[in-house]
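Hello,

I think I submitted the magnesium ion job twice by accident. Can you confirm which output corresponds to this input? Input:
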Amino acid sequence: SGSTGCLTSRGWLEFFLCCSLHRLGLGISNVSFDSIHSLQLSVLPSFGFLFDIDGVLVRGKTPIPAAKRAFQKLVNSQGQFLVPVVFVTNAGNCLRQKKADQLSHLLGISQDQVMMSHSPLRMFKRYHEKCVLVSGQGPLLDIAQDLGFCQPITIDTLREKRPLLDAVDHDRRPSILVSAHFCFKPFSVVLFGEPVRWETSLQLIIDVLLTSGYPGNPYGQENYPHIPVLACNMDLMWVAEAQSPRFGHGTFMVCLENIYKKITGKELKYEALMGKPSRLTYQYAEHLIRAQALQRSWEQPILTLYAVGDNLMTDVYGANLYNRYLEKNSRQGSKPRIQAKVSGGRGPAVLSQAAAHCKSVLVCTGVYNPHNEVPLDTRDSITETVFHGHRDFRFDPGLVEPDHIVPDVDAAVDLVFQLENFAPN
Ligand SMILES: [Mg+2]
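Support: Only one job matched these inputs. Its output is below.
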């Protein structure tokens, strides 16, 4: 980790465009997963889908026509899914239900099928009981509590309680010095998404890290490694209505990492990085896929995951990275077993994994432009231009080559059914 790779200038535009914009929410209504009574083995799936949302199912608020056709193939006459399906978005500034609601034009989707960049935080149970400082915007406390955190405090609350700390904006400095009693000590920091008033968030997070959770105290040399930092959605930029990409949460993280390094001479460390392309996100998605299969009493193991997305640097890179991990584990003959670590464990609690492969399927309805290929010559990519992925990820040309390229999500479903010899109806 810690190294950066490069893209050539040909890939640059592609990459620029690819810097994520998974800002959509999905809303959801409930779908029941009653068992289906099938007489043929071929109707039972041994695979599952991970669908990206923006650029695959919708563009902005507009549904992509192919998505409706695809979904007609994915459900039976009662509207039940025939295959385990999870919707994986890097959005993080709203609740799952809101995202599910945004997909309600397609069909009834349960919020249990929607994965936001922060969803894996549910697994980090050992952080849930203690006070956590949360950074971002939107309904932060609701999101944190929904994920299981019992004592979240926001940057705004911390600022109110410690009015001397936020001194950049002259107009916001306290006029009267009062000493507020502050009884919360953050034991960890969760970065949900980009905040507003970056100087305030940067200052207060640095204060908390350099004082081990006592931001009114002087900085101490001994506070390293710092208290745990968990971060969601490391997308550097995203594409909105403006002509050029906009700052994403990854840009905020670059600031925080570099300020920390400049002040202390040491690396800011992440206890966990979540959201595509991180492995944790795919592990959690697989966990949700398996939970669906279990609920439907589908007894065949889910062996292959198909990740359908429009972004080379998040969807394809993430799926391929996870595939390497799965295949390495299969080669070694040991299934990765990340069983529930109820307390004290460093890792998250998820169902044990069984998939052997994660295949990447790229669609052309979103940011990917088939006429603008990423160069596959490694030397080019090392000598030129810039990698926009996170500091702790390395650019690897092999990881941005999709297993399959199809025009749209409907074609993706057809292809996968064909590959899997799956004939549910
Ligand atoms: Mg997308």
